[in-house]
Automatic annotation (TrEMBL):
GO terms for biological process: regulation of DNA-templated transcription. One of its GO terms (cellular component) is cytosol. PROSITE patterns: OMPR_PHOB (PS51755), RESPONSE_REGULATORY (PS50110). Keywords: DNA-binding, Phosphoprotein, Transcription, Transcription regulation, Two-component regulatory system. InterPro entries: CheY-like_superfamily, OmpR/PhoB-type_DNA-bd, Sig_transdc_resp-reg_C-effctor, Sig_transdc_resp-reg_receiver, WalR-like, WH-like_DNA-bd_sf. Residues 1-117 form the Response regulatory domain. This is Phosphate regulon transcriptional regulatory protein PhoB. This protein is a positive regulator for the phosphate regulon. Transcription of this operon is positively regulated by PhoB and PhoR when phosphate is limited.
């Protein structure tokens, strides 16, 4: 179970929706008091805290978590304003395991959640594949017919999303939300451009990425 504390309803809902769609159990809280009440009776596997909250700010909540023996070993990810360097340093000094700079993309959030959980659970490296295409999630190495393919960060996120959910069709709007974040104000043509460059780099494996006319894209053998 992941606990997520965020007072902005729209952000909280899309984060919880994304976590659920990726197979995680997650529960959201709009303020620090409701979060602390739940923490008294439940032990989550990970906590995500926004710094700016209406009652108790995220840094104070982090101090409370790390001060109590029962919760001090729980992994915590902080969400901070993009330029709030002091908040990030303070959070890490207090024992936070990672931080997200707002606004963040949903895929970046999921990647960081998995990375923190992996460090705590010491999971085995995970290999994903479809035909002659493969991704090693631990090393972020992509191979097409045994050859390493160099991708940009967004190209990698996009390919990982499609490969993890083979056969599922994603609209351009869904891809923008998951990869670029809900605050992205660019055109959905960005998705088409990244698909085109991704196909060019994948060579013979490019045909795994299918265009569903009028809808979006999917990856399928």
């Amino acid at each position: 179970m992941i606990f997520y504390v965020e007072d902005d309803n729209s952000i909280r809902e899309i984060v919880l929706y994304t976590l659920h769609s990726m197979g995680f159990e997650a529960q959201g809280f709009a303020d620090g008091h409701s979060f602390l009440q739940a923490l008294e009776t439940q032990r989550p596997s990970l906590i995500m805290l926004d710094v700016m909250l209406p009652d108790i700010d995220g840094v104070e909540l982090l101090k409370t978590i790390k001060r109590q023996a029962r919760t001090s070993d729980l992994p915590v990810i902080m969400a901070t304003a993009r330029d709030a360097e002091i908040e990030k340093i303070q959070a890490l000094d207090l024992g936070a395991d990672d931080y997200l700079s707002k606004p963040f993309s949903m895929m970046e959030m999921v990647a960081r959640v998995k990375a923190v959980l992996r460090r705590y659970k010491q999971e085995e490296p995970k290999q994903l594949s479809a035909g002659d295409l493969s991704i090693d999630e631990t090393s972020h190495v992509v191979k097409a017919k045994g050859q390493v393919v160099e991708l940009t960060y967004k190209e990698y996120e996009l390919l990982l999303l499609l490969l993890k959910h083979q056969g599922r069709v994603y609209s351009r709007e869904q891809i923008l939300d998951l990869i670029w974040g809900h605050d992205y104000d660019g055109e959905n043509r960005t998705v088409d451009v990244h698909i085109r460059t991704l196909r060019a780099k994948l060579g013979d494996c490019a045909n795994l990425i299918k265009t569903v006319r009028g809808v979006g894209y999917k990856l399928e053998v």
